[in-house]
Amino acid sequence: MAKGLGLTVLLALLPAALGQLNTAARVAGKKYFGTATNEFQFSDAPYLAELNNTQDFGQLTPANAMKWELTELVQGQFTFENASLVVEQARNHGQLLRGHTCVWHTQLPSWVSTGGFDKKTLLSVVDKHCSTVVGHFKGQMYSWDVVNEPFNEDGTFRETVFYNTTGTDYIESALRAAHHADPQTKLYINDYNIDGTGPKSDAMYNLVKSLKKKGVPIHGIGVQGHLVVGTVPTTIEENFRKFASLGVEIAITELDIRMETPATEALLAQQKEDYKTVISACKNVPACIGVTVWDWTDKYSWIPGVFPTEGAALPWDENLEKKPAYYGTLEAFLGH
Ligand SMILES: *[C@@H]1O[C@H](CO)[C@@H](O)[C@H](O)[C@H]1NC(C)=O
Ligand SMILES: *[C@@H]1O[C@H](CO)[C@@H](O)[C@H](O)[C@H]1NC(C)=O
Ligand SMILES: *[C@@H]1O[C@H](CO)[C@@H](O)[C@H](O)[C@H]1NC(C)=O
Which domain CATH number covers 157? Predict the structure, then answer.
């Protein structure tokens, strides 16, 4: 009671800007709070108005536009027009950018997945793709998710066309190509269900450790943060500290915490606590440099399309109204 009242009074006394997510993240020592977005949503004026609000969003990630099938659908023919719209939006507002993603087994054109390339050829295909895409946006990206989702749940490598053909060599090739194309951008490997400790997190730890030992450029671990209300791991901070011991940075890259819909007051209250848990873990570990939500409003969440009985995963609802999760995020950054 006293604590809640104290926060209310404090927030009332602070300048309004401090009561917003990116500003609060910066106060907590982080580089940004940001969001994924799609350029085709920019025609939604109320959506765009809030996306422009740098007090909530200091960083953007193109949710789709930089993926392989949207940048090199036909071998050797690169298209960047749509991705450039997101880059321009961020530049207009002084927001940082995370590039997403060079090598992923999904949204991958069939000329890659069923091309029947031998190892040497596939490695050169990966090299060419990453060099070209990362090189195109040279100097403009804070970081890149160079490799996305390389692991199975048990910590073994996912048997994608890349792994089946090259073993783990594709990871090294992609990272080296990206580094050569833009030596300043920070290179990440990104995955889900590596929030808390467990076999998949151990696998990520071991991969990054071995890459660093070999001198392969790797600067960050992307923890996606696709979570479920009421089941958020209790070991996130412990896991982040272990990742940090490798000397890399950590970012929460795709945060959303879904629930069975329709949302109830009890579920929304639990979701607020779950956002607080995740954000507090990032706040408490200096190597965790920022948090990105996978879009900010339930209006544009990917969840119902993939998990039809679930949704309401983001800090703003479908009408662009702030939910308890918004205030949970704020409270966690401000340390209450
Ligand atoms: C948002 O920013 C874009 C430029 O990136 C601008 O065209 C648009 O008018 C802005 N909208 C609002 C509501 O501020
Ligand atoms: C760019 O986006 C538009 C509108 O969403 C879409 O019709 C078009 O196919 C996209 N271009 C590429 C090259 O993906
Ligand atoms: C990779 O190899 C495994 C084991 O042989 C197989 O089950 C899987 O379908 C292969 N993946 C692809 C993308 O070809």
Answer: 3.20.20.80
Asked if residue 15 belongs to a domain, the reply is no
In the structure encoding, which two tokens stand for residue 79, read together?
A: 């298209």
Q: Both ends of the chain: CA-CA distance in Å?
A: 13
Q: Quick check: pTM over 0.85? A: yes
Torsion 10-12-16-19 (CA) sign:
positive
Range of the domain at 170: 25-334
* 256 neighbors 225 (Cβ within 8 angstroms): yes
> Catalytic site residue 159?
no
- Residue whose CA is at the smallest distance from ligand 2 atom 14: 70
Structural contact between residues 66 and 90, judged by C-beta atoms closer than 8 angstroms: no
Q: Does 20 map to a domain?
A: no
Answer whether 78 contacts ligand 2 (Cβ < 6 A). no
Which residue, 279, 249, 121, is CA-closest to 185? 249
Number of domains in the chain: 1
> How does pLDDT run across 177-198, given as a tens digit for each residue?
999 999 999 999 999 999 999 9
Residue 294, C-beta contacts closer than 8 angstroms, at least 6 positions apart: 35, 36, 63, 224, 226, 254, 255, 256, 301, 302, 314
DSSP H or E run through 60? strand 59-62
